UniProtKB/TrEMBL annotation:
Gene3D superfamilies recorded: TolB, C-terminal domain (2.120.10.30)
InterPro entries: 6-blade_b-propeller_TolB-like, Oryzine_lactonohydrolase, SGL
Domain SMP-30/Gluconolactonase/LRE-like region residue range list: 164-335
Domain of life: Eukaryota
Pfam families reported for this sequence: SGL (PF08450)
Key words of the record: Signal
Span of the signal peptide: 1-24
Keyword Cytoplasm among record annotations: no
Protein name: SMP-30/Gluconolactonase/LRE-like region domain-containing protein
Length: 377
């Protein structure tokens, strides 16, 4: 691993978001009216919502600072979020890039955010908390740039200042990754990440050398395997709490650069993750990703970000809001918030879910029996 590098911090004052900020502003509670954002498809969704669900605005700003990631770090009561691509002379030096945003004091009445403008990470996207072998880190994927010095790949981020970064894998053999988009940390400590070609189609990366596929990186052995392929654009990725099922959202209908293919893939797929007999002696090898099956397809848009809760329910962010399914693919319900460009969600404390919606960061308060997979263990 290369030497650690430090973040250059650019602290955004409250003046940057004023007067648009609406911290703590409640926009919706459960209601029988047609205006309610809570769409109940199954009675089980009532249990998830609890007796008094609430959707409120944490931040409402002029820049698209809340687009992806949503990685909660409980010890510091903070969340790492990634912006959409934007250009601002005071923040990005005029470049069109994505930046890492650190929201602190998350559970208080006075949350704040800071942009972590780090020169060695080019266009971060998403990831997950990494808690294995005593580590307390963030596994983060980056799209990369046109510059070989700021590659695409998978990195460890120290969640404490000075927010050091350690590269884990930035190429598959001699081939640079296309533009990794999301990552999930399995119970065995391995990290699965998607690698679509959006970086190229959006003008951030050179022409791709690799298929649109999913990889498995093992920190214990520092090895990477191509684990599953044949996607249009593999995007969000998550797993069941026990690590036996991999979920991958395919957003192939979104070609990139504003082009939509109405016949393109929009389903989320489920796969079994298991060891298989190998060799003449029947010894077990793997894990392998098998039994590809359609898990669900949103009735609006396609799943970008994906997460699971400890009950195995699958949570996906689509163009109309948040969708929730049972482990068997039955739609439980939705939370509509009408911001079609947001890309992800993040579980925080029990019963708290944060929804990324570009200029707006929402907080969803539901039953405290709902806990995100991988948030605390």
């Amino acid at each position: 691993m290369s030497s650690l590098v430090n973040f250059l911090l650019l602290v955004l004052t409250t003046a940057l978001c004023a007067p648009a900020c609406s911290n703590g502003h409640v926009i919706a509670r459960r209601s029988s009216s047609a205006a309610s954002p809570f769409v109940i498809s199954s009675p089980a969704f009532e249990t998830i919502l609890g007796t008094n669900p609430k959707l409120s605005v944490v931040f409402n700003v002029t820049l698209p600072l809340f687009h992806e990631a949503g990685i909660y770090h409980a010890p510091t009561d903070s969340m790492f979020i990634v912006s959409d691509t934007f250009s601002d002379p005071s923040i990005t030096n005029g470049e069109m890039i994505q930046v890492l945003v650190h929201v602190t004091n998350l559970s208080t009445d006075n949350p704040q955010y800071t942009i972590l403008n780090e020169t060695s990470l080019a266009n971060p996207v998403s990831g997950a908390r990494y808690l294995h072998n005593g580590a307390d880190l963030i596994a983060l994927v980056c799209i990369g740039s046109m510059n070989d010095a700021t590659p695409a790949g998978l990195f460890f981020l120290n969640p404490y200042p000075p927010f050091n970064v350690t590269p884990l894998t930035t190429s598959y053999g001699n081939y640079p990754y296309n533009s990794p988009d999301d990552a999930t940390v399995f119970p065995d400590g391995s990290i699965y990440f998607t690698d679509p070609v959006y970086g190229f189609t959006n003008g951030l990366r050179p022409p791709p050398y690799l298929p649109n596929q999913v990889y498995r990186y093992d920190p214990a052995t520092n090895t990477t395997r191509a684990i599953v392929d044949a996607f249009g654009r593999p995007n969000g990725v998550t797993h069941s709490p026990d690590g036996t099922i991999l979920y991958v959202g395919d957003t192939g209908a979104n070609i990139g650069n504003g082009t939509i293919d109405t016949q393109g893939q929009r389903s989320t797929y489920a796969f079994s993750v298991r060891m298989l007999p190998s060799g003449v002696d029947g010894s077990m090898a793997g894990p392998f990703v098998t039994d590809r099956r359609v898990f669900a397809m949103p009735d609006v848009g396609a799943n970008d970000g994906l997460k699971t809760d400890l009950n195995g329910n699958v949570w996906g962010q689509s163009t109309d809001g948040l969708h929730v399914w049972t482990p068997s693919g039955e739609q439980l319900g939705k939370v509509l918030y009408g911001d079609g460009d947001g890309g992800n969600l993040g579980f925080a404390e029990p019963g708290e879910v944060y929804l990324m919606a570009e200029q707006v960061l929402y907080k969803l308060e539901i039953s405290n029996t709902v806990v995100g997979t991988g948030v605390f263990t």
